[in-house]
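Ops channel
N.P.: pipeline sanity check, posting one input/output pair.
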């Protein structure tokens, strides 16, 4: 991370210049890491307001504290003795509690967690924008739109997935994705669509099987795009970008035509910032969680890298726009990842850096009938033993016994993925305890006007409660 250290002492003037050129999202991701602990003071004298006009809320889905620590090891420059900071480290405000209001489960899922973020209400797992009594609750995005602000949702998952859905839809079951997509189009505030910029996956829910919603959005003035080039060339202030039928591919596996998370964020902000009343934008690194569930450490680190770039972009934007608040947190942790396992006090991120593809990618390729040995040799950056390849072949053969609709298929699919990932988990000394979520408090990061309200140990509902209060006291333009 030499790059981070070189920019650690960046001046306010330099930060403004960097913010002004962030249009080229691929070349200007200057980090706020290093030892620049005086950065907030640098910006405060420039006219930071007490009440933010713009709010960028970033969610690292599944990003528990062990993920942040592991990523620091992963991103560290091994040529220096000291461990370098990541872009997150200078902006740690505290932690937050994540428990849901669920009669059966006291560890949250993303739906209940996002509803807490978006509305200030605890609810049951699976609920989207409704409280524990299944009553619709107002979200901060809806309040922003009522205030005349522009709004956006960006995710590497389906845009109808739990976290983005909880800001602009109201259903009692997160799996009602057709209905969620319909609500994105049909529900309006002051005669206008709730969300001006929708970017992510989930094209399946906007096509001819669900009322040709893409055509309807297009008729209402939205640009509808499905690749990075068209997104960057779009000039409309409203855009629906759907870059995969379902979840977008992990960053390590993605084709060039797909925009990265930070490129979607950049595109969204450029559209939203033209509104003199301000904007609300939620940006989700969804596939941190989606890599944590199958215990895919390669995918986790890939997605953490992408999320750090988005976080860094937002922080630099806030430095050059002192009326902007940035908050970043997680809805929960996933997988019970441990930095080291077994008796050796060692975690080896170098092995993860050698990987060419994620375990999830290789599993899908083999499940679709590709030759296991070729897939493993193409995906791994180090030699995998013949005995382990034989184990992978055995699990692949066992998977062929089931159709995807069979209840046994999912369990066998995970056995195949476990076998595929065992070499990298062993070589990196990465441990896991579950394929589900875990209930520890998660970190909160922030910068900008109002960020002090997020300090200490807060409840996840405080995110929304604070933002509602900011919007209640919006400065009239």
């Amino acid at each position: 991370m030499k790059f981070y250290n070189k920019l650690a002492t960046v001046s306010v003037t330099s930060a403004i210049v960097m913010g002004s050129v962030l249009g080229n999202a691929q070349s200007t991701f200057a980090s706020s890491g290093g030892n620049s602990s005086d950065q907030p003071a640098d910006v405060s004298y420039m006219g930071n307001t007490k009440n933010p006009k713009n709010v960028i809320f970033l969610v690292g889905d599944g990003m528990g504290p062990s993920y942040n620590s592991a990523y620091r090891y992963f991103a560290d420059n091994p040529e220096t003795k000291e461990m370098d900071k990541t872009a997150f480290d200078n902006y740690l405000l505290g932690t937050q509690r994540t428990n849901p209001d669920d009669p059966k489960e006291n560890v949250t899922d993303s739906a209940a967690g996002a509803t807490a973020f978006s509305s200030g209400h605890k609810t049951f797992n699976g609920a989207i924008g409704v409280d524990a009594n299944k009553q619709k609750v107002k979200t901060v995005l809806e309040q922003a739109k009522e205030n005349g602000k522009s709004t956006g949702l960006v995710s590497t998952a389906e845009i109808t997935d739990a976290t983005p859905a909880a800001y602009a839809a109201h259903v009692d079951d997160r799996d009602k994705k057709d209905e969620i997509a319909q609500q994105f189009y049909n529900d309006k505030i002051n005669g206008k669509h709730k969300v001006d910029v929708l970017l992510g996956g989930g094209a399946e829910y906007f096509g001819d099987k669900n009322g040709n919603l893409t055509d309807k959005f297009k008729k209402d003035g939205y640009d509808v795009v499905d690749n990075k080039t068209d997104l960057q060339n779009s000039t409309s202030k409203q855009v629906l970008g759907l870059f995969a039928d379902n979840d977008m591919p992990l960053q390590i596996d993605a084709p060039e035509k797909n925009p990265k998370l930070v490129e979607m964020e950049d595109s969204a902000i450029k559209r939203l910032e033209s509104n003199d009343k301000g904007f609300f934008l939620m940006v989700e690194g969804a596939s941190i969680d989606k890599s944590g569930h199958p215990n895919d450490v390669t995918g986790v680190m890939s997605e953490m890298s992408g999320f750090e770039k988005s976080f860094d972009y937002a922080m630099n934007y806030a430095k050059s726009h002192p009326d902007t608040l940035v908050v970043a947190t997680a809805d929960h942790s996933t997988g019970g990842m441990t930095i080291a396992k077994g008796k050796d006090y060692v975690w080896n991120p170098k092995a993860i850096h050698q990987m060419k593809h994620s375990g999830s990618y290789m599993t899908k390729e083999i499940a679709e009938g590709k030759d296991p040995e070729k897939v493993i040799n193409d995906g791994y950056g180090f030699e995998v033993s013949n005995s382990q390849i034989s184990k992978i072949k055995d699990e692949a053969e066992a998977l062929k016994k089931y159709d995807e609709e069979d209840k046994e298929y999912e369990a066998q699919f995970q056995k195949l993925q476990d076998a595929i990932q065992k070499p990298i988990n062993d070589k990196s000394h990465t441990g896991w305890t579950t394929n589900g979520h875990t209930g520890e408090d998660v970190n909160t990061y922030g910068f900008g006007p109002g960020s002090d309200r997020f300090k200490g140990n807060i409840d996840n509902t405080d995110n929304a409660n604070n933002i509602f209060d900011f919007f209640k006291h919006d400065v009239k333009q």
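N.P.: looks fine end to end. The radius of gyration is 22 Å.
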